[in-house]
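Listing S7. Sequence submitted for prediction.
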Amino acid sequence: QGPLVESGGGLVQAGGSLRLSCAASGRAITTNSMGWFRQAPGKEREFVAAMSGRGGTTGYADSVKGRFTISRDNAKNMAYLHMNSLKPEDTAVYYCAIGRYTWIQRSSTEYAYWGQGTQVTVSS
């Protein structure tokens, strides 16, 4: 088991909601940014959302803005991705990651640790 473990994925109908969780074990996430990425079959991994180390700044991909919300609980070493109004095009494996720095980053190369991913499937 790696330093990050995602959970909460599953099958949901279009318009539904899911909450993904990311548990960081053995590694404090207090000061590092946290990010969520996703990868659909045949496509490259893409940025979804990120939050700065202290939680003061967030960033979202245009495709999810207004529908997804990233949050974190540093005391519990947890990060979350709340997904509402899901669309079939949101279907992908979702990954959480710990950033190398405090501020948010949108490039996957700026993330040092990754989870194994959790599948989200949205049916039409």
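Caption to Listing S7: primary sequence and predicted structure tokens for the chain studied. The mean pLDDT is 93. DSSP finds no helices and eleven strands in the chain.
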